[in-house]
Amino acid sequence: MKNIVPNILYLLFVVFLLSGCAKDTNGLVGKWERFSDQGSGTILHVEKVGDNSYEGKLTHVAGVLTELGFEQQEVKWKSISKTGKKKYQGQDLQKAVDDAGKVARVKYIDVQFELVSEDIMYMSGDSTNNEFVGTKQKWRRLKMMDE
Is domain 26-146 classified as CATH 3.40.50.300? Predict the structure, then answer.
């Protein structure tokens, strides 16, 4: 009986460690696809880049983002940090083109992210500027079979 208690405690400890490694505690990590607006079909991959920071790189550019000069591997979201339960803040890359279709302006704007479920995220920014591409966006998590 003496050997059973330490073995059970050891087993519980191992299960605790493995469960912590199995799932990232930050729900943003992974691949996300934009939907329900002019940028639908765009895909980006969010990964951890520091102790408390995340960024999203474009892996597929679609819709109006193609016309605005966005490119694969470009950092679309940066400086993302957690602000509350299922809420984050960061910056979103914005571009504007001139009449010839050349990129004329590039800047990052402050945005907020909210996980409304495990697989759906809303991103919103300041819409007081000229909103063209959408400062309110919907993103869905891509599973391995969707990629």
Answer: no
How far is C-alpha 94 from the geometric centre of its chain's CA atoms?
A: 16
Question: What is the rounded distance in angstroms from the CA atom of residue 63 to the CA atom of residue 42?
Answer: 7
Task: Give strand pairing partners of 89.
Answer: 81, 112
- The DSSP annotation for 71-113 comes to -TT-EEEEEEEEEETTEEEEEEEEEEE-TTS-EEEEEEEEEEE
Write the pLDDT tens digit of every residue in 45-81.
999 998 889 999 999 999 999 999 999 999 999 999 9
pTM (predicted TM-score): 0.77
Q: Where are the domains of the chain?
A: 26-146
As beta bridge partners, residue 122 has 114, 138
